[in-house]
Amino acid sequence: MTPGFTTAKLTALVSLLLLGTSGAGTGFAADSEAATPTNTDAADYFFREALVSEHPFRASADRTKHGGESPLGIWQGPRNSYLRGTLKAEGGYFDQGNAWFGNDAANIGASTNSWWEWVIHPGVEGSYHFEQSGEVYGRFSIVNGNTQDIDGAGSNVGRGSDGDTSHTAVENAYLGWRSGDYFSSLGKDFLDISFGMQQYVAGNGFLFYSQSSNGKNRGAYWSGERKAAEYAGIARVNYGQFKGDLVYFKANDNPDSDTKVGGITLDYSLGDFGSLGGGYYSVDSDIQTRDGMDVYDVRFQTTPFKPFDVPDMLKPVKFDGEFVHEENGDDLDADGWYLSVGYDWADLAWQPSLTYRYAAFEGNDPNSSKSQDFDPLFYGFYDWGYWYQGEILGEYVLINSNLNSHMVRLSANPIDAIHVNLFFYRFTLDDADGFGVQSDDFADEWNLTVDWTVNDSFALSLVGAYASPDDGAKEFSGGDDDWSYGMAYATYTFK
Asked: Is the pTM of this model over 0.90?
């Protein structure tokens, strides 16, 4: 194995983090492998180690920043110190027609028309605030994930005649310390250090959101409640408009690829103008193209007209984007990026917004001595339609590699508690030959999502989707029917 995260690299990252901190005050934030399809020639381009689904009401895990009373409270101490239980229950029903464009059995080894998923996630969390020495916090939780019948990815094919799966395991087990006012001259919570089984998120989840696996023998493929790494050490610095993370984690993937990632993430706020961020990461893995891989990441968000004296109609214009380069000696040289533009009509009824995004993930040229297949690593949910692009193709067929996509999103809030999205996607392949097909025209997809926040504890999501295959999808799947899909999903968090 080629060493990917050496002592020298760690020393350089620490130096960079400290250097960035010293000048910050002058300026202005899965892996669930589907069953091996019959179509083995193209399987590697669809089924990878970084596939996990998310849901908009399942927030990033760390709730220990919030104290206060709770019906599950165990102890309330001085200075907002606390110990309390946590419990979340969620589940959904999924139904589809002409799955895998009418050829599901040939692609995933079974027929999949409908299935159920549910998750129970109990735990305990707490925090103790010292008078002058910051705060110690931690969390312990377990996840029970279940699937009844064959899911859309075929991840539980072979689990008996019906695919029924149930699995319970530890999810979170970590401790941390926040500095509070201990470094008063440097600001509140200047330093935050944690270690254990925990989730790491960078930016909007383009590369790092979930470091665990769902589906297969763990169940709950779409629910994706498992997110925590097998272990992770995170040191966060917060200084004025500068934020930095130094991180090292081992993925909790299934099967275990012994993938370890170390790196640094930096974010710099530009106030109303936006923010800049990025990072460098080094990877060790039993996967050849990942082992010794260097990852370079640059991202931005901006509302370019907001700080300036321009017509009010220009101020809601917003842009965001990210560019990632991956290289690994003689094995890999790949790029992935996206650029989006959006506009909000906040003063109109229903507060509509419109977004267009183009995303490009390099694919492999069979004639090259190096792989150009972009590795999406451990991406996850940021919002509907982001790194799971399409509730059909993005969840069950395509991943963010050898793929170009156009997305148009129209959003509205008919009432405060209800949020509606209408999506259109156009998918093409970056390199049809590298994908094992003749045409790079793959498919079109429409999605309608409705999120209803019933109260502070209960949320309901409804999804309808429709995908039409083009020549590339027809050749890959062997089917030519339109694929329809519906879902109802509920989440209850005991607070």
From this structure: no
